[in-house]
Amino acid sequence: MPTLDTPFASLELQRQPHQANEPLQAFDAADEYLLGHLHEQGIEAGSRVLLLNDNFGALACSLDGHCQVTSSGDSHLGFLALQKNLASNGLSGDTVTFLPSCETPQGPFDWVLIRVPKTLALLEEQLIRLHGQLAPNARVVAGAMIKHLPRAAGDLLEQYIGPVQASLAVKKARLLVATPETKAAPDSPYPTRYRLDKPALELVNHANVFCRDGLDIGTRAFLPHLPRHLGRVRVADLGCGNGVLGIAYALGSPQAELTLVDESYMAVQSAQENWRAALGNRPVTIRAGDGLAEQPADSLDLVLCNPPFHQQQVVGDFLAWRMFQQARAALVTGGELWIVGNRHLGYHAKLGRLFRGVEQVAANPKFVVLRARK
Fold first, then answer.
1. Which candidate, 315, 325, 304, places its Cα nearest to that of 250?
2. Looking at the DSSP assignment, which residues form a beta bridge with residue 337?
3. 268-322 pLDDT per residue, tens
4. Out of 108, 163, 260, 281, which could bridge 246 as a Cys pair, Cβ 3.0 to 4.6 Å?
5. Which reaction(s) does the protein catalyse, per the Swiss-Prot or TrEMBL entry (predicted)?
6. How does strand 234-238 pair with strand 257-262?
C-alpha cells in the first residue's frame, strides 16, 4: 500500500469504497504540497484549521494531534474513509471533527486548506460560507493537480477571499494562496431551482447536486417509464440526487414506502426539501449512505437507480457495478432493479451476471431503461 510521508506523519491510506487491487491512491501530490506548505509556514498546536474537500482523509489524518481540525466535505464516502484511515493508522481522531457540507463551519479559523472540488459551485458555496469565519491574519490555501485546476477556481478565491498568488508547480500540483480582505457579506446563488411539467414539481438543488440547473437527460428518459404500484411496496431511490425519481414514483404509488439514499450530503438535503414540498408529511427515509450497504437483505421490492459514472475526477463503472450488487442483496426474490444508463456502457450484460432476467423497458438513441429481476 502506498505511504503518504509528510513532516506531520507517515500514513497508509485507503480510498472508499475499497476495492481489491485498488489502482488509485487515496492521496496525491496536491495533498503533499498543502501539508508541506503548512509545515514551512509553521503552525501552533492550538491553531484551528478548516479542511475543505479532504477526499479520503489524507490531510485530517496527517494533522491529527498537531492542531484543532474541522474537516468539511460533501462526500459520505469521504467521511467513512476518514474514520477508517484514522483507525487503521492508530490515530485517536480526538483533534478532528467532521462537518457535512450542508452545515456552515463555525470559526474563527487560523488556516483554511482547500482541495479544489470537481464542482466549482461547491467551492463557491464553501467560500461564501467562510465570510465572518476567518481569524485575524488567517491564511487560505487551495491545492489541486494542475490538470484539475481551472482558472475559475482562482477567480472565485479572489472574488470571495482576496488577492491570489499561484505557486510554482511541484510534481504536477499547484497551490493558490489567497490573502483575506475585508469584503461585504456575499449573497449565495444557491440553492438553484427549476420546474418540471410532468410531474408538476419545483425542485431545489443545493450547490453540489448533479445537474442543479435542470433535469439531467438520463432522468428525463427514465421518468415516463417509472413503474406504478397500488400496494404497500418497499422502494429505494439509490443515488437519489435531488430526489426526483423517488418523488415522481411516490406520487404515482400512494401506498409505497420510500427510502432515498445518496452519498452527497447536499443531495440528501435537496431531496429532503423537495419531498416535503411535494408530499408534505408522508413518511419517508432519506439518508446519506454508502449506497444500500446498510440496507437489510431481502428488505426491498423495487430499486430505482440512475447510476453515476464517476467518483470525483475518476471516470468508470466501479460505483455502478457496486450499486447493482447492493441492490441485488437488498431485494427480495422476485424484486426488481430499474435503471437508466448510456447505451454504450453495456449495463444489460453487466446486470445479466447478477440477475435472472433483464429486459429493456425503453430506449432512445442515447439511453436505455432496463428492468432486472432477482
1. 304
2. 303, 372
3. 999 999 999 999 999 999 999 999 999 999 999 999 999 986 444 444 577 888 9
4. 260
5. guanosine(1835) in 23S rRNA + S-adenosyl-L-methionine = N(2)-methylguanosine(1835) in 23S rRNA + S-adenosyl-L-homocysteine + H(+)
6. parallel
